[in-house]
Amino acid sequence: MRNFFPALEAVQDEPRPLISLEEEMLLIDENARDEARIQKDLGEVNRGIDLADALEDLAVVAANVKDASVEETQLTEICGQMAAAGTDVAPEEIIPSMESFKDGTIATENFKETAKKIWESIQKFLAHVWDTIVNFFKRIFAQIPRARYRLEELKKQIKSIDKSKSKQKEGSHVGVFAVVAHKDVTDPAQYIQANKTFTSIVDWVYSSYAKYVLAMGEKAKAGIEAFDAEDPQASANKLRYALQGVKLGRLPGVVSTKKVGQVETQSTDDLLHNKILIVSDLQKEGDVTTLGVLEKLRTHHVQLADSVGGRSMENGSGEVHKGKPLTVEQMEEVVKELEAQLDAIEKFDKSKNEGDFQRVRKDLAAASKKAEKSLSDLDHSETSGHSKVVETYYRAMLAFNAAFCHWINQPLLQMTSLTLTNLRSGIARVQESIKCYDLEHVVQKERHGVPVPEHPLLPA
Description:
Blueprint: H1 8-11, H2 21-63, H3 70-84, H4 91-94, H5 109-159, E1 178-180, E2 183-185, H6 188-225, H7 232-244, E3 254-260, E4 263-268, E5 275-282, H8 290-299, E6 302-306, H9 311-314, H10 328-350, H11 353-376, H12 385-398, H13 400-434, E7 444-447, E8 450-453
Antiparallel strand pairs: 1-2, 3-4, 4-5, 5-6, 7-8
Helix pairs in contact: 2-3, 2-5, 2-13, 5-10, 5-11, 5-13, 6-7, 6-10, 6-11, 6-13, 7-8, 7-12, 10-13, 11-12
């Protein structure tokens, strides 16, 4: 299915085809697997970055040991083993052989060579991760026409109910509308409000946050492209202040604000499907090094996280909750919110922001190649202490290639998947309420002079 859809640039201005139910199920299944794969792969990328940094630091420390004791050599071995733990790198590939300790010094070539290979692998692997991200969004956008069709059909079903005659069947109940903070939502008004809150978050993610990521990517690309191995600190400083100058629009519905050190964290109210959105924003105040600031900027995320509220109270109760069906007016309100959520995804698609993300990703890769050329022209002899400083800043800046993928995965990709899940769930909840009404009384239309029911749940 990945090769089924043409390039996004070729179809963004043309109507998308209405896919079949079977095709939709295949797309949902493939996206679920890719979503998990992207999460795992980006975790591996972060692990690789940490491993390369650890090996470089270990090489610097080991190089300063002039008369290594048995304990120091053993400690070096243990550090190498710890660095390789949880990876596909064998410890013997990075730990110097015991023979290298005979003259009282510790050979560091393996550490540095392995770190270099890891960095090269990370850049190549990110291209693979990006392809998976692009394919994910292609499948998402392919589902939009069918989702739109379902909503239009649902609106017809609701409109066809004769409000003056159709009444709820006596004793009608429906299942749980949704789960928020691990608590069942059975009240229609609460369910509508939960959808309104969800809509505001979806709008924010696809507007303010999407613009923020694009701006951050553009700044990172410009900073990496201007990397100068002769003055790496100045290059890093420019990137630092350029990134800090990008402002993220205020998160709607903030209910909690905390500040830990130089990082302020805000979180939304509990969202549908046991989720919560968390935003961490690096504050400018404080005496922090450029490398420290770049690290925080790289690793801070807007995160769609699992909610924990209410879990202990709900677990093990075994109680099956039921609620009153939605009224016709309430059905219309729910559909209005579902439409707004789908509009946000479709607007994101048609705005060509997704295409801009692809362009920035390519520009980042090209800028990294240029920075690599500047680094390769440098004197890397053992006596050149400057080269070690350069490589440190170089790695700190190139790490924003991975950060850009992380920023899209969380929460853009995750929120897209959740929004379509909520859309399907919402349609099912409304249809369940429709069945609780006396459908014999529906708005009639005449076909060839004969009144016929318009409602799709009744025979034509």
